[in-house]
């Protein structure tokens, strides 16, 4: 008997066994489900599922398992995965089912694949051939299933292989799915489907309404991206909509007697995109919109969905009075509806519409106030969103009060709900603040209730506002801020968010540069007090933060932390930094429209005639009058842009008039100019460098230089040019490499033997870990060397310039270029046989494995004779990596929250008794990693890039290799670290 | 686009999970828990919309849900979907479930019990696949959906019937000799080497 026949016979009993079919299949799952529901504890469930999984494992690897049994196992595996258990051993079998089975097996296999695997999963590549085969199959069902899986999950790299087959499918009965699959491809790889746009058009004109519906997905996307390219299709969309509305589609497409509602919604969205800010296109659609509005007046949920889209479209396209009127009435129906869902949509529509027509909010003010007190979180939130859009200088205090109430009440709530509201408060506060004290108090409130959740630009903009402006009024503001912080800190300061503390420390360490002499003493006292409290209360990092700033002001007296207070005294005691005071412009009389104090009377005068006061109680009316003040016909709302979420804008303080500032002499005019410019660069560097992240290094740049009078042309001879240049350089921030110049050391040292160059490092930097001094280049006059210092917050690149001759070298200028960024450094002269040190604080924004820097030094040995000397060097990403000290629990939490991961096997240093520990230690030494924990054959390691992105490494001994799994929020960082790990181990 | 469809019961036990945007498995479980936490706190007299949890896109996404007896149906969608449209889509899907799973004359969802969904997990997925494909609403024509599902059911039944047995025996014999079955894949080992893995 042949082998084959023997096998067949042995397989037959199994086949007949499973004859009972579907009943048997479901019974295993049924059993499992039943026994799980009977369990009481999570623990029991776990052990039961584990048992189940191991029996499944046995079954799948047994050769006697029939295809049918496999199908059943697959369903059980789906169930286990749904509950969160790992059934990854079945993945390959899911693929095999799709490859080998009949139609039913394929169906389960494909389903399991699309549930289990994601687009990047390596096993998915095994499926590609099967999909290709099935797409070409004569069996429509097989092709149908293959299309389904292609639209759900397909590897991006394999799109070219399948694309021609999909295009063929566009003419077949299953073309509806093919269209959607192509749309999916368009989403993940738009360039690859460029050539089939004509086929999309064909799909739009398809006689099957289903195909047309599918193609609308594509068009909605395409038109969102570039509406101008599809204006010619407006007529077609209008015709389609008209036919749908008129009920020309088969009755099958009706839902609750409404013809194809989802199709209508889609079409209305497309039309509103096409008609936006385009009069002639809009005119094409007025009629059909009117018709839709009219037809949709029925009483089912889904008609409201259509109405809502209609209203939105009418307000988006070029306005037509008649339609607007109808739409407004429609919104009224929504807002006044007793159904809560409709009311929500009404509020949403109002929020959208008040941008065009603020009076509409006035009509519904009582409803809005009711919604403000609604128990439903979502409604309340949406109401605040609406209020945000009608904020003006007169109602800002009431609205902010409401928003802060909301934040306080939902303090415990973990959702992102509050996020927007949180951002709105500072946004409108900054724009409409009626006076200083209210402004500062509100901002304090914002910062102290969950300031750490604020977006980065909020504190940045706040600080920028404080830093800007030289007028007396601005100084009052700063003074008020400092005083209010004192009050806050005198209370219980332990619960304050870190970001608030950072803001405070910033304000108190920097405001002095702008302060007038006569408020100086007062300011000094309060700031002293504040710093004392900060020093007492704050954690080490903030001490460091402050001290770094003080240090940048007073570089000469800084060697240990005990000097902080001395530094503090000096900060407030030195008048040398206040030179610009003499020329500060007198306060300008013209008040800013935005900050204009709003008298209650004035507000009342501006009130629009209110609708008839009903029987509502007095409180609500009062609230209404304060909320909707200034919403008259003529009032313009500077906050409301066209877009749904306007970008934050901030109150621009009026600059001192040039005429008033140019008081006495030409020099003072120049100086006030330059001081304002330089304070700008200060604040700009704030924004880009995002000071309030973890890197105080960035902040150093901003305040080391106080504005001084300067001329802004070329390489001038006086020392002030340098200041000016600094101001310029700190503006060029924000590329993939951030270079910030803290300050330049010009300490002259007597010439030393070159091997002892490290001794030249400034005293306070000597203790930092640093690399060897590398010679960069030299010529007969100068020799250059560099040294890298690893500070906690930045990499310091120190360039040592030594004069090898006996003569004085003049006008030494150092220029350092890194990628597109330049840094200048100008020196007057370099004495014979002396060495000068420049250093640069560097941060890496985008991880690169290596970055190179180049630079030139130009100098004059004799007047009129300029020499240049160029140099270059390389920095590795490893220089920018610092240990991230976390506990095992924190690591675990962080691990789950990170998205980008990379896995790779690395060399294990096997020559030692404890290979894992030895390897990790080697990596730690080479890369400054932090070994969090080593448990058995696994180790966890953490590090961060200087600009803040963490990277977590999970290492496991896997035979003779080290399986490393890296995760980071930054997509490129794991690769980068992996590269350096490989190198470090290879060199070991 | 629809980002996820989550069905769980009043205790937060998942009954059907379908993600259309990739999340790691443990993240999926966390999202389910968070969503349940958010949705279950809401009374029946509040609206059916809320912003997504912090794990699934926050305020960019919206959760649209319906609560039927013991089950929550939650759709997580982005801003391109109409809220009321999705709300009715949920109803439509439930109606189809009623048509498919309830074998009485009264084919409405109220009579579909939780266990029907789990016991027919695969079928529920097939139905969903007809309605939503890759996160996009594909079919809202109920008759069409039901017809598709019934066609598939017939396919299954014809296989299980008595007439199926000899045919299967034959195909089993055929299978033994099928050359295209890759014999080099070892079933017990999942560490199959994939030849051209993209490096990252």
Automatic annotation (TrEMBL), chain A:
InterPro entries: Adaptor_Complx_Large_Subunit, AP4_complex_esu, AP4E1_C, ARM-like, ARM-type_fold, Clathrin/coatomer_adapt-like_N. It is a peripheral membrane protein. Coiled coil: none annotated. It is found in: Endomembrane system. Gene3D superfamilies: Leucine-rich Repeat Variant. Residues 581-619, 638-683, 700-726 are annotated as: Disordered. Residues 882-986 form the AP-4 complex subunit epsilon-1 C-terminal domain. One of its GO terms (biological process) is vesicle-mediated transport. Keywords: Golgi apparatus, Membrane, Protein transport, Transport. GO terms for cellular component: AP-4 adaptor complex; endomembrane system. Residues 700-718 have a biased composition (Polar residues). Residues 659-683 have a biased composition (Low complexity). Adaptor protein complex 4 (AP-4) is a heterotetramer composed of two large adaptins, a medium adaptin and a small adaptin. Subunit of novel type of clathrin- or non-clathrin-associated protein coat involved in targeting proteins from the trans-Golgi network (TGN) to the endosomal-lysosomal system. Belongs to the adaptor complexes large subunit family. This is AP-4 complex subunit epsilon.
From TrEMBL, chain B:
One of its GO terms (cellular component) is AP-3 adaptor complex. The keyword Transferase does not apply. One of its GO terms (biological process) is intracellular protein transport. It comes from the Eukaryota. Gene3D superfamilies: 3.30.450.60. Pfam families: Clat_adaptor_s (PF01217). It is a peripheral membrane protein. SUPFAM superfamilies: SNARE-like. This is AP-3 complex subunit sigma-2-like.
């Amino acid at each position: 008997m042949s082998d084959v026949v023997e096998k067949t016979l042995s397989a037959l009993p199994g086949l007949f066994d499973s004859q009972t079919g579907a009943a048997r299949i479901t019974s295993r799952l049924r059993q499992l489900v039943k026994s799980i529901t009977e369990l009481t504890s999570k623990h029991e469930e776990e052990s039961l599922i584990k048992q189940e999984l191991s029996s499944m494992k046995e079954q799948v690897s047994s050769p006697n398992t029939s295809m049918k049994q496999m199908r059943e196992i697959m369903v059980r595996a789906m169930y286990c995965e749904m509950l969160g258990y790992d059934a990854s051993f079945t993945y390959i079998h899911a693929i095999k089912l799709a490859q080998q089975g009949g139609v039913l097996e394929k169906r389960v296999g494909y389903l399991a694949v699309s549930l289990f695997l994601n687009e990047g999963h390596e096993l998915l590549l095994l499926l590609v051939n099967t999909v290709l085969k099935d797409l070409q199959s004569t069996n429509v069902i097989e092709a149908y299933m293959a299309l389904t899986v292609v639209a759900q999950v397909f590897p991006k790299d394999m799109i070219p292989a399948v694309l021609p087959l999909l295009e063929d499918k566009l003419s077949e009965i299953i073309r509806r799915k093919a269209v959607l699959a192509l749309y999916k491809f368009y989403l993940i790889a738009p360039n690859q489907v460029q050539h089939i746009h004509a086929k999309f058009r064909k799909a739009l004109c398809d006689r099957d309404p289903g195909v047309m519906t599918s193609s609308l997905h594509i068009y909605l996307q395409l038109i969102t991206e570039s509406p101008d390219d599809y204006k010619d299709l407006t007529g077609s969309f209008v015709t389609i909509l008209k036919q749908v509305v008129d009920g020309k589609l088969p009755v099958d497409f009706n839902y609750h007697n409404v013809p194809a509602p989802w199709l209508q919604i889609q079409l209305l969205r497309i039309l509103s995109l096409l008609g936006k800010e385009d009069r002639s296109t809009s005119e094409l659609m007025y009629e059909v919109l009117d018709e839709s509005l009219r037809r949709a007046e029925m009483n089912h949920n889904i008609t409201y969905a259509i109405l809502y889209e209609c209203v939105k479209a009418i307000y988006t396209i070029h306005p037509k009075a008649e339609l607007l009127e109808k739409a407004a009435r429609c919104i009224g129906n929504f807002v006044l509806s007793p159904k809560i869902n409709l009311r929500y949509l009404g509020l949403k529509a109002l929020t959208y519409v008040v941008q065009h027509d603020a009076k509409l909010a006035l009509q519904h003010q009582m409803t809005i106030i009711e919604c403000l007190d609604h128990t439903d979180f979502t409604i309340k939130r949406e109401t605040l969103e609406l209020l945000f859009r009608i904020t003006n200088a007169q109602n800002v205090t009431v609205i902010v009060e409401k928003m802060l109430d909301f934040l306080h009440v939902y303090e415990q709530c973990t959702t992102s709900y509050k996020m927007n509201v949180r951002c709105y408060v500072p946004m409108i506060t900054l724009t409409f603040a009626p006076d200083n004290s209210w402004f500062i108090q509100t901002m304090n409130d914002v910062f102290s209730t969950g300031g750490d959740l604020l977006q980065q630009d909020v504190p940045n903009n706040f600080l920028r506002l404080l830093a800007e402006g030289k007028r007396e009024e601005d100084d009052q503001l700063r003074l008020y801020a400092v005083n209010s912080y004192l009050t806050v800190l005198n209370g219980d300061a332990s619960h304050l968010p870190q970001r608030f503390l950072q803001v405070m420390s910033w304000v108190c360490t920097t405001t002095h540069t702008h302060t007038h002499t006569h408020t100086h003493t007062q300011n000094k006292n309060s700031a002293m007090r504040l710093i004392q409290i900060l020093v007492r209360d704050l954690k080490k990092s903030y001490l460091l933060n402050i001290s770094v700033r003080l240090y940048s002001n007073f570089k000469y007296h800084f060697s240990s932390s005990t000097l902080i207070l001395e530094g503090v005294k000096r900060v407030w005691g030195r008048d040398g930094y206040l030179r610009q005071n003499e020329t500060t412009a007198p306060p300008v009389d013209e008040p800013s429209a935005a900050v204009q104090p709003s008298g209650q009377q004035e507000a009342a005068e501006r009130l629009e005639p209110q609708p008839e006061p009903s029987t509502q109680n007095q409180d609500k009316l009062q609230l209404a009058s304060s909320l909707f003040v200034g919403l008259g016909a003529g009032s313009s709302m500077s906050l409301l842009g066209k877009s749904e979420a306007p970008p934050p804008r901030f109150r621009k303080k009026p600059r001192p008039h040039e005429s008033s500032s140019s008081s006495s002499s030409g020099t003072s005019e120049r100086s006030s100019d330059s001081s304002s410019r330089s304070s700008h660069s200060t604040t700009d560097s704030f924004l880009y460098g995002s000071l309030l992240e973890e890197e105080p290094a960035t902040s150093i740049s901003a305040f080391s230089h106080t504005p001084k009078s300067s001329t802004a042309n070329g390489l001038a001879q006086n020392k002030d040019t340098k200041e000016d240049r600094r101001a310029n350089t700190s503006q060029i921030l924000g590329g993939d490499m951030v270079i910030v110049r803290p300050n330049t050391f010009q300490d002259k040292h007597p010439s030393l033997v070159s091997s002892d160059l490290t001794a030249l490092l400034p005293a306070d930097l000597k203790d930092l870990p640093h690399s060897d001094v590398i010679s960069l280049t030299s010529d007969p006059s100068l020799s250059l060397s560099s040294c890298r210092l690893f500070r906690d917050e930045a990499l310091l690149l120190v360039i040592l310039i030594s004069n090898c001759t006996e003569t004085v070298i003049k006008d030494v200028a150092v220029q350092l270029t890194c990628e597109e960024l330049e840094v200048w450094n100008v020196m007057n002269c370099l004495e014979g046989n002396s060495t000068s040190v420049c250093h640069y604080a560097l941060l890496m924004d985008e991880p690169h494995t290596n970055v190179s820097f180049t630079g030139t030094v130009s100098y004059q040995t004799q007047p009129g004779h300029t020499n240049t000397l160029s140099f270059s060097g390389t920095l590795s990403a490893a220089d920018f990596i610092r240990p991230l000290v976390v506990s095992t629990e924190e690591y675990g939490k962080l691990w789950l929250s990170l998205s980008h991961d990379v896995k790779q096997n690395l060399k294990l240093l096997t020559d030692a008794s404890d290979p894992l520990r030895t390897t990790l230690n080697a990596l730690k030494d080479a890369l400054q990693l932090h070994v969090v924990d080593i448990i058995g054959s696994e180790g966890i390691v953490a590090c961060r890039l200087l600009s803040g992105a963490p990277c977590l490494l999970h290492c496991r001994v896997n035979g003779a290799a080290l399986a490393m799994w890296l995760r980071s929020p930054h997509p490129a960082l794991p690769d980068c670290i992996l590269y350096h790990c490989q190198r470090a181990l290879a060199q070991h | 686009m629809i980002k996820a469809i989550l069905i769980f019961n009043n205790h937060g036990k998942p009954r059907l999970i379908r993600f259309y945007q990739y999340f790691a498995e443990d993240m999926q479980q966390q999202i389910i828990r968070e969503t349940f936490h958010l949705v279950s706190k809401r009374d029946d007299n509040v609206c059916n919309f809320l912003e997504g949890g912090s794990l699934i896109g926050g305020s960019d996404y919206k959760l649209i849900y319906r609560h039927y007896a013991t089950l929550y149906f939650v759709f997580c969608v982005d801003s391109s979907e109409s809220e009321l449209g999705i709300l009715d889509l949920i109803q439509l899907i439930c109606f189809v479930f009623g048509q498919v799973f309830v074998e009485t004359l009264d084919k409405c969802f109220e009579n579909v019990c939780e266990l029907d969904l789990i016991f027919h997990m695969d079928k529920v997925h097939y139905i969903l696949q007809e309605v939503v494909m890759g996160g996009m609403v594909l079919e809202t024509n109920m008759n069409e959906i039901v017809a598709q599902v019934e066609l598939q059911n017939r396919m299954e039944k014809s296989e299980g019937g008595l007439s199926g047995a000899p045919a299967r025996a034959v195909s089993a014999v055929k299978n033994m000799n099928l050359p295209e079955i890759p014999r080099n894949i070892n079933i017990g080992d999942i560490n199959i080497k994939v030849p051209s893995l993209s490096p990252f």
